[in-house]
Design goal:
The structure is a homodimer of 163-residue chains. Chain A contains six helices and three strands. Chain A is 61% helix and 7% strand. The structure holds a DNA duplex (23 and 23 nucleotides).
Chain lengths: 163, 163
DNA sequence: TATTGTTATACTCTATAACTATA
DNA sequence: TATAGTTATAGAGTATAACAATA
């Protein structure tokens, strides 16, 4: 290795310490929280995150189209299609004909799917509460408000920078 | 246009509406915030998230070992090694011999790496401020405190459930 | 022509572990 | 024996687009 000319140890005037950089900290937090939830639905049943989410929103018993499901959990049609196929394979979901539009079907949980949901949902919600239990009532309210604000601001920034 | 604005009526006794499920909302927020930052370091220079983070922590000019870098940004040694290799290829980083331990090297930014950092860091920090500008001073303080609490709680839960 | 959903394909990420060279 | 780092490899996840059936 030739001793390439090395620039002096100049701090850039703008310091960027990851430990105080909000997007980084948010990613660390999200990753940890996600893992702690995933522990439950991958440990007790072998579900992926997509499958778990689909199970959750179908847990009401209502039949929904693939498109509707994708919209509810922000999933591309291709990913939705694949996750649904796997769940049909595992007999967690069945397809029902949609008489009003033969291009699509309606998806609903089988009795086994419902059973899994009834077992899983309380455990997952308990873990959520366990997480949030560290916060006071006030803090929970603040958190909700702050997250909503940040989310719309983040969306606004992206739209704006794309025009 | 789907004319069915039909809301689910049949809730199971434990309701799990993704829109009010904290881990889900956190994931949505993190994803949006991450994307809005990535827009900058992938758009202006072709960096991955790992590469951007390494650039950021080396921005002080200080030389660090691969292990040290991995610890600072929570990256496995394998991923660290690969990201560093790519950055050496792009001439953003050079290896310097570590005389005290010949198993490892010290990594530091090249003059080009420093130049990229000096251009990128202010843009990224500006975007962070743009995001946070939607919050009041109070809210920013609350956010920091709440995130710290949630992070340690999340870690505590995972440790606990693994024993 | 547009929309719903499926399939193909290529690409990126990740996780595990074997391997080397030092210590 | 343990540690720093590299390389191999397989699996998971993602993105783009072509496609069939229906509207």
């Amino acid at each position: 290795m030739p001793a390439d000319n090395i620039e002096p140890k100049l701090d850039s005037n703008v310091s960027l310490d990851m430990d105080h950089f909000f997007p980084y900290k948010l990613t660390q937090l999200q990753s940890s929280v996600s893992d702690s939830i995933a522990e439950i639905y991958t440990g007790h049943f072998e579900l992926t995150r997509h499958e778990w989410r689909i199970l959750a929103i179908l847990g009401t018993g209502k039949a929904l189209s693939a498109k509707h499901i994708g919209l509810m959990i922000n999933l591309e049609k291709m990913q939705t299609s694949r996750a649904l196929a796997k769940m049909i394979n595992k007999a967690l979901i069945i397809k029902v004909e949609d008489k009003s539009d033969k291009r699509s079907s309606l998806l609903k949980l089988t009795s086994q799917g419902l059973r899994v949901h009834r077992e899983l949902a309380p455990m997952v919600l308990a873990r959520e509460q366990d997480l949030l239990s560290i916060l006071s009532e006030d803090e929970r309210g603040q958190l909700k408000q702050i997250m909503d604000k940040l989310f719309s601001q983040s969306k606004a920034i992206q739209v704006q920078s794309k025009s």
